Amino acid sequence: DWQYYRDNVAYLPEFKDRKDASGKTAEDYGFEVFMEIIESILDRENQFASPEWDEYAGFLKYFTEFKDRKDDTGKSAVDYGMEVLVKMIQDGEDDSKYGVLLEEMPEFFNLKDANGKTPVMYAAEAGVSDYMLSMIETPGVDVRIKDNAGKSVYQYYEDFLNRETQTVNTNYANDPAALQ
Q1: If 0-12 CB within 10 Å is exposed, 13-18 middle and 19+ buried, where does residue 115 land?
Q2: Which residues of 10-45 are buried (b: 16+ CB within 10 A; e: fewer)?
Q3: Do 60 and 77 touch, CB atoms closer than 8 A?
Q4: pTM of the predicted model, to two decimals?
Q5: Max Cα separation, the chain?
């Protein structure tokens, strides 16, 4: 019961840092359970399921002390959520599946991965303009952010359009009859 955890661990500093025989604190155990719940919400093993983004956002908002804490693999709950979200965007998933996250936590769409890219940049890079527009029109989403290479959302979308134009030109060059 998370309320029990809150009442008896998080708010009682004299117990918060006390370690058991294995060297773990109550907070360490709470974090392990938190990450198990985050993993089940994101359902990273089931590629056909859509994460319950409202539950995910709720847990991140309520357990701020765990949001950025890293697990044994060096990843946080935010990192795992970012991976799932980016994969959904790249796969062209319907934005209604992550629209709740956009409404509940627009700041999540400003977070950067290891390359400094935001979810909006991935949408622009993949050319999913409908999703990109819904993201950039949401108050709280910052399109001025640049990645580690100094590129913006608009530069990613411009690169996508240039690739598409080049593909069309190449197709017509290879098939002159298509122009007629």
Answers
A1: exposed
A2: beeeeeeeeeeeeeeebbeebbeebbebbeebbebe
A3: yes
A4: 0.71
A5: 80
115-148 pLDDT tens trace: 999 998 988 888 877 777 888 888 888 989 999 9
Question: Hey, what are 164's tokens?
Answer: 């598409």
SS3 19: strand
Q: What share of the chain is helix, strand, coil (3-state, %, to 5)?
A: 65, 0, 35
- Phi, psi at residue 59, to the nearest 5°? -65, -40
| Rounded Cα–Cα distance for residues 160 and 6 (Å) | 47
Let me know: does 138 contact 106? Beta carbons within 8 Å. yes
Quick one: CA dihedral 53, 59, 64, 69, positive or negative?
A: negative
Task: Note the pLDDT of residue 57.
Answer: 83
94 vs 123, residue with greater confidence: 123
pLDDT of residue 170: 67
